[in-house]
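pinned: reference chain
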Amino acid sequence: MRHARRRIVRRATRLAAVGGLLLGAGMVTQAVASEPSGSAGVPNASVRSAAGTGEDLVERLGSDRTAGTWIGSDGRPVVAVTDADTAAEVRRSGAAAKLVRHSMRELKSATATLRSAPRVSGTAWLLDYRTNEVVVRGDSTVSASAWAELTGVADGIGAFVRMERTDGSFTTRINGAQAILSTAGRCSAGFNVTDGRTDFILTAGHCGPEGSVWFADGRGDREVGRTVVGSFPGDDYSLVEYTGGRAGAGADVVAVGDGQGVRITGTGAVSVGQRVFRSGSTSGLRDGEVTGVDATVNYPEGTVTGLIETNVCAEPGDSGGPLFSEGVALGVTSGGNGDCDAGGTTFFQPLDKPLSELGVQLITATPPGGEQDAGPAPSAAGSGSGAAPPDAAGPGVSAPVSGEDVSNLLSRLADPANVGPGLLVIGGSLIALVATRWIRTEQDRRAYQRHYSATWG
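pinned: its C-alpha cells
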C-alpha cells in the first residue's frame, strides 16, 4: 500500500512538472509575442504618445517659454522651460519639467549667428536640449586658425555655446539597406515612395546628380532606375524613378540583414533620447539614440541643415539607408564621422521635407487595427510585381520580412520582466523532473540492496 502511494505521488509530481514546462514555454512565447514594456529601451506606443505630448507642449507654450523636449530615462517627456509658472503648467499636463536659462529663441538666434559666419568645412552644430546649449563640433580637418576664428564667434554669442573637437572627418557616406550602384558611386536604397502613378526610391541627394542611372549589380545587367530630382547641398535627398515605374511586391519592407526585413507602417518625427535603428549595405543593422535635432553640417561639398544627429555608427556605402523605429520611417542616412569599430556620429535627412516638397508618400503596410495613411493609393499595393521587370524591385524592397520591427523583438528577448517568469517556471519544472527521477533511482537502489542482503545473508 505504501509503495502504491509513492508511485501515485511520483506520477503526480512528474505530470505537474511536465505541465509546468508547457506553461513556462507558453509564458515565454506570450512574452515574445506581446508588446515590450516601456523600460526595455525602445519607446512603445505609450512612450511615443508621451513624446508627442512634449512636442505639443513646446509648440503650444512657445519659443520664449520653452527650449526643447526629450525622452527621459523613465520614458516620460521632459520639457525645458524658462520659468516656474511654465514648469507647473508642463507638470499638470503629465510631462516632467526642467528649468533652464536660455529659451529656444536664444538658441535659434545663436545658430543663426553661426550660419552667418564664414563657412568652415568639417564643422557642425546642433541644439542640445538636455544641457541647454548649442554644441559646435570641429573634425580633424579643421585647422587651428579656422577653429580659433569660429571660437571667437562663439564667445561673442555667449557661454551657452560649447566648442568640441572630434576625431575623424564629417563626410557624406557615399559608397543602405540594399546596395544600388552607378557611375557616381555606390549608395543605398532608402524607402519606397509613390506619387500615386509612379514608384520611386527615396535616398540621399549626394549619391548622384539628376540623370544618374542605378543598377542592382556591378556588371550593369540589372537596371533599377534613374535619378529624376534631388536636393544637395542645403538638403540631402533625391528620388530614383523605378525602371518600369513599379517597385513591385514587398515595397513596404526595408532589409535588416540575414534575409530579414521590417515592414514600414508610416512616418514620424524623432525625439531626442529616442532609440532608433539604421540599416545599411556596408555595416548592416545598427542601433543607437537620437542625440540632437535641427543639426547643421558643413560637408566639404556644402552645408546641409535641419538634420537628425544620432550616435548610430555608419560607414561609406551606408548613404541613403533607412532610419526607423518600430516600423516608423524617420529619415535617410546623410553622413557623419567614425566607423562601426570605433563608433561615431551619423546625421540623417528627416523625411517630412522631401515627402512634402516632392509630392510623394511612403509605400507602407497597413498598421494593425488601423487604416493606411490617407493620400494616393500606393501603386504597388496588391499589384504584386506584374508590372515590374524581373528583379526590378530588389534594391528597394529588400528581403523576406520577419513580420515586425526587430527593435520590438530584441527588446522583448532582452527584458527579464517579460520572459523571466516563464523561464523560472521552466527551471522549476526541470528541477522537479530531475528530483523525481533521482528519488526513484535511489529507492530502486535501496530495494536492490535489501533484496540481495536478504538473499545472500
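why pinned: Residues 32-51, 371-407 have pLDDT under 50 and may be disordered. The first helix runs from residue 2 to 33.
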